[in-house]
Automatic annotation (TrEMBL):
It comes from Bifidobacterium callitrichos DSM 23973. Keywords: DNA-binding. It comes from the Bacteria. This is Transposase DNA-binding domain protein. One of its GO terms (molecular function) is DNA binding.
């Protein structure tokens, strides 16, 4: 429950996750795997944009 002037948000059913480095087996901190997640999404976005730019000159049939 939120107090006056506060905004509460949440997602029911979320559970904590345990993420390990696949190379070392060391458990990652939540901040570390969040950073890796956003880095992966950024890389995927850049690749997608590059494919779009490369295919811009292809004419449709």
């Amino acid at each position: 429950m939120s107090g006056r002037g506060e905004i509460a948000c949440g997602a029911p059913g979320l559970e904590p996750v345990l993420v390990r480095d696949s190379g070392t087996g060391v458990e990652l901190d939540p901040e570390e795997y969040e950073a890796l997640f956003w880095s992966h999404l950024d890389h995927a976005r850049r690749c997608q944009n590059m494919m779009i730019r490369m295919n811009d000159d292809i004419t449709t049939r």
